[in-house]
Amino acid sequence: MDFLSVNRTLMIATYLFLGFFIANHTITGSISLLSHHLLPCFYICLEKGNCCREHITSKSFIFECDLGATKPIGVCNGRIADNLPSEQDVISFYTSNGIGKMRIYDPNQATLQALRGTNIELILGVPNGDLQSLTTPSTANDWVQNNIVAFSPAVNFRYIAVGNEVEPSDPASQYVLPAMQNIYNALASANLGGEIKVSTSVSASLLAQSYPPSAGSFGATSPTYITPIVSFLATTGAPLLVNVYPYFAYIGDPQNIRLDFALFTAQGTVFQDGALAYQNLFDAIVDAFYSALEAAGGANVEIVVSETGWPSTGEAAATVDNATTYYKNLINHVNDGTPKKPGKAMETYLFAMFDEDQKGPAETERHFGLFSPDKQPKYNNISFS
């Protein structure tokens, strides 16, 4: 079916749905129900095809929808290991587990080939070691042509992460924004600028202050490093990609950070920040970034959690039970938003798909996988959709 036929079908279906609803319901009170429950469910059903059941009588329309299918969860596909499945097997494993979003850290050609036709949404990373070369416009154009244009639209690129956790003190920091700008311009020249957003991925160490979240700030380095990046994101409509690890915050300060606060298991409010009540550390970190973005002139810049996870072994609190608790509670929480952004679903990428036996130096770095390299699940009853 061609594009126009698909849109014509959706339009007719929408009109039929609205007509039926209006004909069988009084106006009073219906607008809220229609806009907040039935229409979102209806469009999800149009997209998913099989997630809804409807029961129609002369005066009632009961529309049950599996809204859980819309959880904005992805999984990072790290490859620092010598015992992982083939790229084709990995992509098939994503699909069979209902994982519709992926992050990779470099333009691995075998991965990109395997992603063709899957419709898995992709964060494609630019390695830190490549940043300097991409400050040359022609090199950035070649990079985009070889790694994006050559695979688009068969591969569903969502974001380009230009650098990962580059610190302001790192010599590579001077290359991040010029590389972002050049990749953005190359995408625009290829008529892909409106579809694929260009950003960079940062860690919580970029925050000079994170407590309370309302006082979040980037600190003294922001005018020369992060503020120009925030301005770029605000202008282009791209989100900031943030790696959020309550685990590392907890083990770094266990005297002042409670384990239940890090695991989403605290009963009730742990601390109050003005009118906002915080019950988990994940929300506190994300909202500190939102406050820092506002202070840097990026009040309209959204956040995508580009990594988060909990290790299963290695150091203190790294256990299978704790990791299971973290992942289950996180997945159930992401649609709720944060105290600063209530009700706003948080696009979140779990780190990582498999244990990576060549990471280090800490033992925990080798045990962040949701699955072992033989594709056996490490945690029970975790649903990604």
Q: How would you sum up this structure, described in words?
A:
With 385 residues, the chain is α/β, with parallel strands linked by helices. The protein folds into 2 domains: 66 residues, no CATH class; 296 residues, Glycosidases (TIM Barrel, Alpha-Beta Barrel). The protein is built from 11 helices and 12 strands. The strands form 3 sheets. Strands 3-4-5-6-7-8-11-12 form an 8-stranded parallel β-barrel. A two-stranded antiparallel sheet has the order 1-2. A two-stranded antiparallel ribbon has the order 9-10. Helix 1 packs antiparallel against helix 2 and helix 5 crosses helix 6. The longest helix is centred in the first third of the chain and has 22 residues. The radius of gyration is 22 Å and the shape is globular. 38% of the residues are buried.
The shape, in one word, is globular
Total helices: the number is 11
Q: What's the order of the H and E elements?
A: HHEEEHEHEHEHEHEHHEEHEHE
Whole-number mean pLDDT: 87
The CATH homologous superfamily of the largest domain = Glycosidases
What is the terminal separation in angstroms? 27 Å
CATH architecture assignment of the largest domain:
Alpha-Beta Barrel
As a percent range, the share of helical residues equals 25-40%
Radius of gyration: 22 Å
Trace the largest sheet across and list its strands. 3-4-5-6-7-8-11-12
Total number of beta strands: 12
